């Protein structure tokens, strides 16, 4: 199945992703473990893999940065749908 995002999705640095979606902020104690856990979960990799990317995630492969950008697009779209009360149930009821 072709990826509908492949032509338009850029990349999103893991640090930027975590600043936007993680519960702990960079200034809080334990943020790094929290961020590693979040990234491992959303990217379906081990926390050890995430740890190997470096202190600022500078060695994160491009394929994972693209995936983070895709997730960001979907989360943004989800927020817009909720704001406009466009749930799937509502859309289905229009038929």
Describe the protein's architecture and organization.
- The chain contains five helices and no strands.
- The chain has one domain (14-93).
- The longest helix has 22 residues, at 62-83.
- By secondary structure, the chain is mainly α.
List keywords for this structure.
95 residues; mainly alpha; 0% strand
**Stretches with pLDDT under 50, minimum 5 residues:** none
Largest sheet: none
The tally of beta strands, per DSSP, is 0
- Mean pLDDT equals 89
Rg: 16 Å
Helix content: 55-70%
Short description:
The protein has helices at residues 14-21, 31-43, 47-51, 62-83, 88-93. It is mostly helical and 95 residues long.
Q: Strands, helices and their partners?
A:
Blueprint: H1 14-21, H2 31-43, H3 47-51, H4 62-83, H5 88-93
